[in-house]
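User: Hi! I have a protein structure encoded as tokens and I'd like to know what sequence might fold into it. I'm fairly new to this, so please keep things simple.
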């Protein structure tokens, strides 16, 4: 009791010595993720030759954490920095105290960090929290200190931090099937995850292109299924399959000893590892070793690249399929202590099931209406087995098809809708939509980037991600455990390339899943990130500098003048621009603040470094028309996924462009589009048009027709024209289309209404038949 009281007294003294206020002076705190509460003091803590790390009590975990902290501090300062128990210390002054305090804070991953001239206290209810407090403490040491070791004394700014994560699940994924990554890289990946307070590593271990986990009962999985022919010199799509007599030499696998080592390493960083064993689809590599588990029973080669449609699937009619799966899962369960096992469940083409007599027999015996219900039977059977072994199941959102397994957790990747549906059914959800969380997508102009699978997800877009959809009630939102970013590796053959795709987007997601929503601020994050680039340099991590694209946005004022803003993700970017259609160079206007235009203008703008244009200039026509800056309202709200950038995106002077995912289009899923523009007064005009987009491959279709209405009082409307769409929904060419009022007659009205009829559901011939169709709209131009 005496030691405990003395300890608490010291903590109180340190808190007094470190009395903090909300007025920071000459200090930059660059912690990522942003803490929940942070106050700066006026003083500093000095790490000197007398420094000790003091443990509140003898505790194996606490001693490990002390050693974990001491290691980098010893390298930086060159001091011995002993680790001692408080009861063994003659005095505790200007030292670092690590403390486990039961019940404070209540969140098991929360922590408190108090730094003053009198010392440092890192305390938590758990070792997890102390570990995260150490991460924040280390980020207060400038990266230059890590790069110049054995420097002696150094100072750390005085702060008080009380912090805890917003979400319990904070994940990063890595696909090691398409390309195999060494054990050393996996450990490095886990290291950096820990630095940014992630707590889950989703390890995608099996897929069509290679089985990566040793299963002792089935040795052919690593003798055969882990290897494919080396056609890495060919494009991923269209690679030639293995020829007769050609040896499979490209691949690799992790032994069970490798896995145990990686798991132990991750546990020390408070990261749990969730293994993914794909089923019932994405299993072609299995049939290279055990063809009897397929419907056809035909031996296949491990495919060296992409192929579609991916019809290879476990036979759901054979009992030996489930015996194999259970035996594999037994070894997986024995290896991985995680409460979750991920079973995939995505993109399971059911063509073979439709033709398989055994699968059809299974459907009759089980009273299943269709192959979707057969998949549900398959998944539920696997879940029942996992539950019997004390595990929980996670699957991609396709496991919703045919009925969700009773206790399954859904990982929502095809947008947020799967997660929304699952949460409304009372199931836990992890959000990982392609729109924000697929880090195999391009993060800058593809012309200047390594080849990627497609898409466009910039650092800023990742940072803008909100894992809780507005459609959920507070109770339903409690089922959203958190979020995860995925790195699929079809186009990522090396560790260096994987790092480039992960960083710095991983750091942005770290703040999304940890920090309070109201604490997130893009500009503040971007400033802090500049310091973290230096930390990444120290760790020898290959990272992207982000997108050099200049975003051109508009803001109307009351005098029919438009203010133009130019922004780039690049911190303190030098942006030069022109207004006359010429290409910009360093002699062009230098952007310093928003500027005005009052006529239709072509703006060209680019980021310059050392006099050189980075990537290429952005080009945007700002269309000045009579609806700019006026009031617009919608009968049906646009999707939070496709907002166009603002509520007024349809009357901001900027056309949507030639791709649907550029952030300029407003999207409406299943709903008609109905917009009402209030021009403020009776206004004459002779031209009226609205733009729409079609890309059937993305479930986006032109409207069936567009109606233009006008009114003087907002009550009685006159139909000016109904314009029917003359393009087939089957047209595969992605394109925008302008629906233009044919008459050039001068009209006068205060209100203009535009109604566009959504086709409602994807047609029967479409692979998304029955799904809600998207309608994408952009600029409504009135002149």
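Assistant: Happy to help. Inverse folding works backwards from shape to sequence: for each of the 783 positions I chose a residue that suits the local structure. Here it is:
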């Amino acid at each position: 009791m005496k030691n405990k009281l003395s300890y608490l007294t010291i903590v109180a003294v340190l808190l007094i010595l470190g009395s903090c206020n909300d007025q920071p002076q000459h200090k930059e705190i660059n912690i990522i993720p942003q803490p929940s509460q942070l106050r700066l003091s006026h003083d500093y803590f000095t790490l000197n030759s007398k420094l000790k790390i003091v443990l509140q009590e003898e505790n194996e975990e606490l001693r490990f954490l002390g050693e974990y902290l001491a290691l980098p501090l010893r390298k930086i300062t060159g001091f011995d920095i002993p680790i001692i128990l408080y009861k063994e210390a003659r005095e505790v002054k200007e030292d670092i105290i690590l403390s486990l305090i039961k019940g404070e804070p209540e969140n098991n991953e929360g922590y408190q960090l108090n730094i003053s001239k009198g010392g440092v206290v890192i305390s938590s209810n758990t070792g997890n929290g102390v570990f995260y407090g150490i991460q924040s403490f280390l980020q207060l040491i400038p990266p230059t200190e890590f790069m110049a070791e054995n420097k002696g004394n150094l100072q750390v700014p005085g702060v008080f931090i009380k912090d805890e994560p917003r979400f319990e699940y904070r994940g990063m994924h890595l696909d090691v099937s398409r390309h195999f990554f060494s054990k050393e890289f996996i450990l490095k990946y886990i290291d950096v995850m820990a630095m940014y307070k992630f707590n889950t590593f989703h390890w995608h271990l099996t897929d069509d292109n290679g089985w990566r986990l040793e299963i002792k009962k089935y040795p052919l999985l690593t003798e055969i299924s882990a290897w494919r022919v080396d056609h890495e010199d060919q494009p991923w799509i269209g690679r030639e399959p293995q020829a007769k007599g050609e040896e499979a030499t490209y691949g690799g696998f992790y032994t069970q000893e490798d896995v145990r080592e990686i798991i132990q390493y991750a546990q020390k960083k408070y990261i749990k590892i969730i293994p993914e064993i794909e089923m019932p689809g994405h299993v072609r590599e299995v049939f290279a070793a055990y063809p009897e588990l397929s419907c056809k029973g035909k031996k296949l080669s491990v495919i060296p690249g992409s192929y579609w449609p991916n019809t290879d699937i476990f036979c759901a009619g054979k009992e030996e399929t489930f015996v194999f799966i259970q035996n594999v899962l037994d070894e997986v369960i024995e290896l991985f202590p995680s409460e979750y096992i991920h079973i995939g469940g995505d993109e399971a083409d059911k063509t073979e099931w439709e033709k398989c007599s055994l699968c059809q027999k299974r459907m009759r015996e089980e009273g299943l209406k269709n192959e979707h219900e057969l998949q549900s039977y398959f998944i539920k059977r696997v879940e029942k087995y996992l539950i019997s072994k004390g595990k929980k199941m996670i699957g991609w959102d396709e496991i919703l098809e045919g009925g969700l397994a009773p206790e399954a957790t859904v990982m929502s990747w095809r947008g947020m809708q799967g997660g929304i549906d699952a949460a409304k059914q009372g199931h836990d959800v992890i959000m990982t939509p392609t729109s924000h969380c697929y880090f195999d997508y391009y993060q800058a102009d593809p012309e200047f980037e390594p080849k990627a699978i497609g898409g466009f997800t910039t650092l800023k877009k990742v940072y803008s991600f909100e894992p809780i959809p507005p459609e959920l009630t507070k109770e339903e939102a409690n089922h959203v455990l958190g979020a995860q970013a995925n790195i699929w590796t079809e186009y990522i053959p090396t560790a260096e390339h994987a790092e480039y795709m992960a960083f710095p987007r991983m750091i942005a997601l770290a703040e999304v899943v940890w920090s309070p929503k109201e604490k997130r601020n893009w500009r503040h994050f971007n400033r802090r990130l500049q310091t973290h680039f230096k930390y990444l340099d120290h760790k020898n991590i290959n990272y992207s500098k982000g997108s050099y694209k200049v975003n051109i946005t508009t803001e109307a004022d009351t005098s029919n003048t438009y203010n133009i803003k130019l922004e780039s993700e690049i911190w303190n970017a030098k942006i030069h621009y022109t207004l006359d259609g010429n290409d910009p160079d360093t002699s062009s206007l230098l952007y310093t603040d928003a500027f005005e235009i009052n006529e239709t203008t072509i703006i060209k703008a680019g980021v310059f470094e050392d006099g050189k244009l980075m990537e290429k200039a952005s080009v945007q026509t700002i269309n000045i028309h009579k609806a700019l800056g006026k009031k617009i309202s919608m009968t049906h709200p646009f999707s939070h996924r496709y907002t166009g950038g603002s509520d007024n995106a349809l009357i901001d002077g900027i056309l949507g462009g030639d791709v649907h995912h550029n952030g300029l289009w407003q999207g409406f899923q299943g709903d008609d589009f109905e917009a009402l523009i209030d021009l403020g007064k009776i206004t004459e005009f002779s031209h009226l048009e609205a733009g729409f987009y079609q890309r059937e491959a993305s479930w986006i279709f032109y409207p069936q027709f567009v109606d233009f209405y006008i009114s003087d009082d907002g009550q009685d409307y006159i139909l000016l024209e109904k314009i029917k769409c003359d393009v087939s929904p089957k047209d595969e060419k992605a394109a925008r289309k302008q629906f233009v009022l044919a008459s050039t007659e001068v009209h006068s009205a205060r209100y203009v209404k535009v109604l566009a009829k959504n086709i409602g559901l994807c047609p029967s011939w479409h692979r998304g038949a029955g799904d809600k169709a998207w309608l994408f709209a952009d600029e409504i131009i009135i002149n």
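A useful reference point when you look it over: The domain at 169-538 is CATH 3.20.20.80 (TIM Barrel). Feel free to ask if any position seems puzzling.
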